[in-house]
Amino acid sequence: MTTLPPLPTTPDATFAAYASSNLVNAALANTQHTLDVRNPATGQVLGTAPASTAEDTALAVDAAQAAQAAWAAVPARDRGKRVSAAARALAEHAELIAQVLARETGKAIRTECRGEVAVASDIMDFYGNLGSEIKGQTIPYNPRMLTMTTREPLGVVAAIVPWNVPLVLFALKVGPALVAGNTVVVKASEEAPFATFLMADILMRHLPAGVLNVINGTGAECGDALTRNPDIAKITFTGSEAVGETIYKIGASRIIPVSLELGGKSPMIICEDADLDKAVAGAISGMRFTRQGQSCTAASRIYVHESLRSAFMAQLEQALNALVIGNPLDESTDVGTIINARQMATIQRYIALAEGTEGATVKRYGTLPKSADLSPALFIQPTILMDLPDNHPCVMEEIFGPVAVVHSWTDYEEVIAAANSTHYGLAASVWTRSLSTALDSTARLNAGYVQVNQNLTIQPNVSYGGFGRSGLGKEASLEAMLEHITRSKTIVMNFD
Ligand code: NAD
Q1: What is the pLDDT of residue 282?
Q2: Is residue 247 part of a domain?
Q3: Which residues does the Swiss-Prot or TrEMBL record annotate as the active site (predicted)?
Q4: What angle do CA 196, 471, 464 make, to 5 degrees?
Q5: With a 6 A CB cut-off, is 239 part of the ligand 1 pocket?
Q6: Which residue stretches of 146-232 are H helix?
Q7: What's the CATH code of the domain at 362?
Q8: Does 346 sit in the ligand 1 pocket, CB within 6 Å?
Q9: pTM of the predicted model, to two decimals?
Q10: 3-class DSSP assignment, residue 185
Q11: Mutate to test the pocket of ligand 1, among 164, 265, 288, 403 (most ligand atoms within 8 A of CB)
Q12: Binding site membership of 243 for ligand 1 (Cβ less than 6 Å)
């Protein structure tokens, strides 16, 4: 039974509803400390959110632990049905969730936020339908024995999400974990917790108490306490490389499984025979310019064949100039803001580094908004960097802003080597009409998600995850659920 008050119906009511309360055991759990959450487009404080201590965090883990055995005992298909029903309930509140998300992240409501809510709900529903697929195998070990594997839940899962696509990343972690019989404690991003809380609040009304719990706080206090809690059986984390490394060490010290979805510097190779219109559209969508480039998958290194360079740049510049930068809540806006001043300073530092590099070209596109209702601090124009040395920090490191590097190439072997030259390996794309080039390049590119002639975002039924320092493990798909959020038990029965 829930003791949750009625769901909020406006953005302001949402900020007030979770001003100092986590969502634990299907109830509001008051926290003593709070932190401010700002609207990056105006600079104004939207409200406070919980700043959970280690004690607040432990309460949520205890609730999840207490609920786990009973949830695991629910037949898998029934668990799935409940998750699907919960996902369907999101639809009724989709616009409110999107409005909250736009206010706290600075992402445009039309180009980003509504779509994110729809994708998150689709992912939850996709997993809800997979309850009956949590199967093991029978093994022909000995005809007089029954040898089989079963898939069991792991226990309490700690799911830590960042601010850039918090709802989709929530769904990719929570959907499979719940359907597989785990209970979950989600740590929201302190930069943008409210849409995550609202979504969880809607979902948990369709689930037994304690099965899904959501807490907020800083990484250093709440996140750290969560990952170190001895009742956590699995950590699934999406965020920065540095924090991923810390969390991996904590997981290692307790010998528990850890999934990491970290950064990227994804190459996009445009070959001489590419369809130019498609490639330009793919560069705009792949670089996630409408998310201000704040995407781990961003196609931030564009290698265009020399013969297409000037035509590609002309079309790209035209498309970038047409993007409307403005208030995230305006229906006409394509591009919103950067999340916070720290991220903005990082982006500007990289741009300044390129500007200070001899021979480099830095071009900015579109017009910054001038409205008195907006704070100009976190708006930035889409930016293209050209003529940089191959090993320049802007080429090798994740910027996490609307800044793409464009290089031209003539030698296929060299461009493959350049594409593989960073320590990341999240995604890559190749643009060609040749099947043999597609087959050869996709085999040789060092990335976990390689596409040809498209730059699609994550799809629920397609495994997604990086190589190298982009991370460990996969998300999305049935296989990701079976491999990363269940454990396999081998049973050998001998009645001979
Ligand atoms: P971040 O690592 O700073 O924070 C991510 C989450 O981890 C937040 O909830 C934060 O509070 C928490 N956290 C921070 N320190 C912690 C600690 N010591 N222990 C436990 N939790 C801690 O990342 P961010 O700035 O919020 O997000 C941007 C980063 O996320 C980028 O590097 C981006 O590439 C990455 N990202 C990766 C993917 C992917 O699927 N590979 C998707 C989105 C974002």
Answers
A1: 98
A2: yes
A3: 261
A4: 70
A5: yes
A6: 166-179, 194-204, 224-228
A7: 3.40.309.10
A8: no
A9: 0.97
A10: strand
A11: 164
A12: yes
Q: Are strands 301-305 and 403-409 parallel, antiparallel or unpaired?
A: parallel
Domain with 293, as residue range(s), is: 267-460
Mark whether 261 is an active-site residue: yes
Any idea what the CATH number is for the domain that residue 179 is in? 3.40.605.10
**Is 197 in the same domain as 277?**
no
Residue 61: predicted pLDDT: 99
Q: Annotated catalytic residue: which of 261, 397, 398, 475?
A: 261
Indicate which atom in ligand 1 lies nearest the CA of residue 475: 40
Give the mutation target among 296, 343, 459, 464 for probing the ligand 1 site: most ligand atoms within 8 A of CB: 296
Is the CB of 163 inside a 6 Å radius of any atom of ligand 1? yes
Same domain, 194 and 60: yes
What distance in Å separates the CA atoms of residue 100 and residue 108, rounded to the nearest whole number?
A: 11
CB-based contacts of 209: which residues, under 8 Å, 6+ apart? 1, 2, 25, 26, 27, 63, 67
pLDDT block averages, 10 residues each, the chain of length 496? 88 98 98 98 98 98 98 98 97 97 98 98 98 96 95 98 98 98 98 98 98 98 98 98 98 98 98 98 97 97 98 98 98 98 98 98 97 96 98 98 98 98 98 98 98 95 97 97 98 94
Length of the chain: 496
Report the C-alpha gap between 66 and 209 in whole angstroms. Answer: 10
Could you tell me if the CB of 339 is within 6 A of ligand 1? no
